[in-house]
């Protein structure tokens, strides 16, 4: 027993030392100006703009490295990454609740972008590091917690919409720019440019991003040891089942984001191979859908949240997603893809609406944990989705066999997915539509937010919105049973 106590003391000393290194001067804010949503927006934009540039080179390197069963290998690589993200997101979210957001923003962006320069140095190491980077590739988890720290409850849906719209904005031009530079100057220049933008993002976090964790919260946790029960990813996952609202939201996210993640991994290739879009048309399609998504996640989302409420906005977004996937699945003409793309832009309101309903019900010091759970579920989908889509494409004999032909405007060699034997042009999209339909049925049971004082024992410190961050130390037994969200009865 004495040895165990000594080990715990050493562990606590190491933790306090790490805190002093990560949060200098007792947690004084460092950065330019006050923490704002715009800091989060710039971080997200630069990270995903860098990866968007690599859309075309990534496809080429993937096919050259794995010439046989390219879709399946793509699914396997992203499957490992997604599984690691699923396990690590709640842990990183919980640690950011204690140590602050800035240091974990730096950590997640650095490791997410670490594989980029390896694309030209060593493709095998590139794919290996992509898989392992899933441990820290959970930037959205920390970003949403950062936004929750600095916004009031009624502002969060708009703020989350802005962050999600920024993700779409980063993909409006970057794939087209990457494709043009790749054709004109080669893939090496694209990789160098993407690496430079990733370094710029890291420098921006170091120099310009201030810490968002409120001053009142940091002293309360400064002298106390970290609750490993809270930071343990499996403990966080077990809490999903303890709170019915969290459980319903996580199931909704899983069933709706699974097909979306698979679609992201293969849709551009599908447009080129099956619908016969040229590279320029694909770039234009990405840009148009991106612009429409920005409008949907900013203007339309705000109007819907005020007029029909949070839950109905989620249901409407899921309805648009079902229509979009069904249209992609049955559509065989270019105009159908453009029309379905407009519907896809409207379906992008779902995730910011879900993040808002989670955030406004979660305790202030639990924002990182619950957002980490949601982001972790998305990480798992980022692994399973590409694998599922790749496997279904493989079953229906759609295989990537010649990327060079389509890049030069020719027709790629493929296993004839549009011949008479293929009744459905895009079978994975129909599987996705069925999954989102199940998600819609689950989302019907998510309770409306009826007020924070509605039930005894509710978190009354929420009554002041996000400005109230008072802590009261609680016993570990009570902490384990405490629901993550208010109003969890269905």
Automatic annotation (TrEMBL):
<feature type="transmembrane region" description="Helical">
    <location>
        <begin position="125"/>
        <end position="147"/>
    </location>
</feature>
<feature type="transmembrane region" description="Helical">
    <location>
        <begin position="189"/>
        <end position="209"/>
    </location>
</feature>
<keyword id="KW-0813">Transport</keyword>
<keyword id="KW-0007">Acetylation</keyword>
<feature type="transmembrane region" description="Helical">
    <location>
        <begin position="71"/>
        <end position="92"/>
    </location>
</feature>
<feature type="region of interest" description="Disordered">
    <location>
        <begin position="456"/>
        <end position="490"/>
    </location>
</feature>
<feature type="transmembrane region" description="Helical">
    <location>
        <begin position="104"/>
        <end position="119"/>
    </location>
</feature>
<dbReference type="InterPro" id="IPR011701">
    <property type="entry name" value="MFS"/>
</dbReference>
<protein>
    <recommendedName>
        <fullName>Hippocampus abundant transcript 1 protein</fullName>
    </recommendedName>
</protein>
<feature type="transmembrane region" description="Helical">
    <location>
        <begin position="246"/>
        <end position="270"/>
    </location>
</feature>
<comment type="similarity">
    <text>Belongs to the major facilitator superfamily.</text>
</comment>
<dbReference type="Pfam" id="PF07690">
    <property type="entry name" value="MFS_1"/>
</dbReference>
<feature type="transmembrane region" description="Helical">
    <location>
        <begin position="312"/>
        <end position="330"/>
    </location>
</feature>
<feature type="transmembrane region" description="Helical">
    <location>
        <begin position="159"/>
        <end position="183"/>
    </location>
</feature>
<dbReference type="InterPro" id="IPR036259">
    <property type="entry name" value="MFS_trans_sf"/>
</dbReference>
<dbReference type="GO" id="GO:0022857">
    <property type="term" value="F:transmembrane transporter activity"/>
</dbReference>
<keyword id="KW-0812">Transmembrane</keyword>
<feature type="transmembrane region" description="Helical">
    <location>
        <begin position="379"/>
        <end position="396"/>
    </location>
</feature>
<feature type="transmembrane region" description="Helical">
    <location>
        <begin position="336"/>
        <end position="358"/>
    </location>
</feature>
<feature type="compositionally biased region" description="Polar residues">
    <location>
        <begin position="464"/>
        <end position="475"/>
    </location>
</feature>
<keyword id="KW-1133">Transmembrane helix</keyword>
<keyword id="KW-0325">Glycoprotein</keyword>
<feature type="transmembrane region" description="Helical">
    <location>
        <begin position="37"/>
        <end position="59"/>
    </location>
</feature>
<dbReference type="GO" id="GO:0016020">
    <property type="term" value="C:membrane"/>
</dbReference>
<dbReference type="InterPro" id="IPR020846">
    <property type="entry name" value="MFS_dom"/>
</dbReference>
<feature type="transmembrane region" description="Helical">
    <location>
        <begin position="429"/>
        <end position="446"/>
    </location>
</feature>
<keyword id="KW-0472">Membrane</keyword>
<dbReference type="InterPro" id="IPR001958">
    <property type="entry name" value="Tet-R_TetA/multi-R_MdtG-like"/>
</dbReference>
<feature type="domain" description="Major facilitator superfamily (MFS) profile">
    <location>
        <begin position="36"/>
        <end position="451"/>
    </location>
</feature>
<feature type="transmembrane region" description="Helical">
    <location>
        <begin position="282"/>
        <end position="305"/>
    </location>
</feature>
<dbReference type="InterPro" id="IPR005829">
    <property type="entry name" value="Sugar_transporter_CS"/>
</dbReference>
